[in-house]
Each structure stands twice: as C-alpha cells, then as structure tokens.
C-alpha cells in the first residue's frame, strides 16, 4: 500500500447515500487527503468493482492507479498510515471494539431497516439517494438493471414482512447501549480524543440523527414509519451526540 495516498488523483468510490461511504469520506477529510469522489449506482457497482481490481464487490473503495483499498475500516487504516499529523490518527485499541460492533450491528441494521421500509412498496424513495452523483452513462445502465438490483438487495438484506420490526428492535438495544456509554458525560466514545469509534458511530447513525452537515439525509423522501423512527429517536442522547460530532469535527470540511 506504500504510496497509496501520495497522489492528487486518488479516487474514493461511493454510493452517495451510504453511511459506510460517509465513514470513509470523513476519515480522508479528517487527514486532509486530497481525492476525487466517484459514485456508482447499485448493481453496476459489482461489475465496476471487479474491473478495477477489487477483491469484493462492496463500496467504498479507494483507488490510486492499480492500487485498491476496499471497505471503510481498511480505508481508515490507510488514511491513518498516511496522516500528515500523527497526533490526529484515529486508531486506538479501545476504539476498535466499538467500531466492530457498530459496523456489524448498527450499520447493517440501519441499512436493513431503511431497505425494508422502502424497497418493497416505496422503491422510488430509495433510488434517488442510491443513484446520487452517478455519471449519466452509469445512471442509464443502472436504471436498466434496477428491477433486478432491487430484488437482489431485498434478498441480500433479508427483507421479509417482519424485517423492519426486527431491525428496529435491534437498533433500540444498540441505542440504549450507546446512551449508557454517554451517561457518564464523556465527550468521546473511546477515551479522551476523537477516534475511529466516533467517526464510525456518528457516520452510521447520521441517517437518523440527520445532522445539518449531511443535507442528503434531509432531502430524502421517507416512509411514514421511518419519519416516526427519526422523531422517536431524535431526543436520545446518542443522536444529540452525533449532531455535536458533526458540528465539531466535520462542519469545517
């Protein structure tokens, strides 16, 4: 990976709406790493990822010529390794456990809940965010693939009639866990400085916290059930904390 982020022509490949892509984007911005962002539509992204040399078909991807880093956690690792200011490195041992739980449970079920509420009956709400900032050519191909892509996404995330309520209940448990962590008055989740745990949790909950610095989440059309979730969770300490992290550590980017 040596030299991966040394050039101006680094590309960050995303889904515009993706909270995992926001996690990677935030890490690059935090370290002032210059990059251009490219967005690929779902479905087509699987073909394009293989063509660019990625081992998997998931986003985000950082690409620099023939070098590829895939996944938000790996992108944070590389951003930290190339940090201009070592004191701003995000990784510390106590942050990794929180990041892993947030990735595997919170991030996954935020996405599953949104897909379960939108894709079966309201796919027109999901598609604009998923196709945001894609090129005209990619959008045309993605549009043709969309009926199949939608079905594949529903299958991949286990979108059944009970999926939304299942993911909603799991997220309630995770929000309780995070609220409890904040009950001692801490500013950061893993110690006395901003870390990858904070980037991860703030990014992955941003679709429901809806900080002003992420206008894309305000512009989205939501089902009545998702609007109710946003309203019900809005006063939770963790949601206020997410908005504070964006204001303090993201708004100047």
Mean pLDDT reading: 93
| DSSP summary, beta strand count | 4
From N to C, what is the helix and strand string?
EHEHEEHHHHHHHHH
Q: Which geometry do the CA atoms define? A: globular
Tell me about the biggest sheet?
4 strands, mixed
Low-confidence stretches: 1-7
What fraction of residues sit in β-strands?
Answer: 5-15%
Structural class: alpha+beta
Q: What's the end-to-end separation, in Å? A: 26 Å
Helix percentage range: 55-70%
Could you tell me the radius of gyration in angstroms?
18 Å
* Largest sheet: spatial strand order: 2-1-3-4
Number of helices: 11
Task: Write up what this structure looks like.
It is a single chain. By secondary structure, this protein is α+β, with helices and mostly antiparallel strands. It has 11 helices and 4 strands; from the N terminus they run βαβαββααααααααα. Strands 2-1-3-4 form a 4-stranded mixed β-sheet, with helices on one face. The protein is globular and about 50 Å long. The N terminus is likely disordered.
């Amino acid at each position: 990976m040596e030299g991966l982020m040394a050039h101006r022509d680094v590309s960050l490949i995303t889904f515009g709406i993706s909270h995992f892509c926001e996690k990677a984007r935030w890490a690059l911005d935090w370290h002032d790493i210059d990059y251009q962002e490219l967005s690929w539509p779902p479905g087509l992204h699987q073909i394009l990822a293989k063509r660019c040399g990625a081992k998997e078909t998931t986003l985000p991807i950082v690409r620099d010529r023939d070098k590829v880093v895939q996944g938000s956690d790996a992108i944070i690792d590389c951003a930290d390794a190339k940090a201009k200011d070592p004191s701003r490195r995000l990784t510390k041992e106590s942050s990794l456990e929180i990041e892993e739980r947030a990735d595997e449970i919170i991030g996954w079920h935020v996405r599953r809940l949104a897909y379960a509420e939108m894709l079966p009956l309201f796919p027109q709400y999901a598609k604009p965010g998923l196709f945001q900032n894609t090129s005209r050519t990619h959008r045309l191909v993605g549009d043709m693939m969309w009926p199949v892509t939608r079905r594949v996404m529903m299958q991949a995330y286990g979108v059944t009639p009970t999926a939304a309520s299942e993911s909603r209940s799991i997220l309630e448990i995770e929000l309780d866990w995070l609220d409890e962590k904040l009950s001692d008055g801490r500013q950061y989740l893993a110690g006395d400085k901003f870390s990858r745990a904070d980037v991860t949790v703030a990014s992955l909950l941003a679709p429901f916290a809806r900080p002003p610095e992420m206008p894309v989440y305000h512009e989205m059309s939501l089902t009545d059930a998702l609007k109710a979730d946003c309203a019900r969770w809005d006063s939770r300490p963790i949601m206020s904390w997410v908005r504070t992290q964006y204001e303090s550590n993201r708004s100047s980017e």
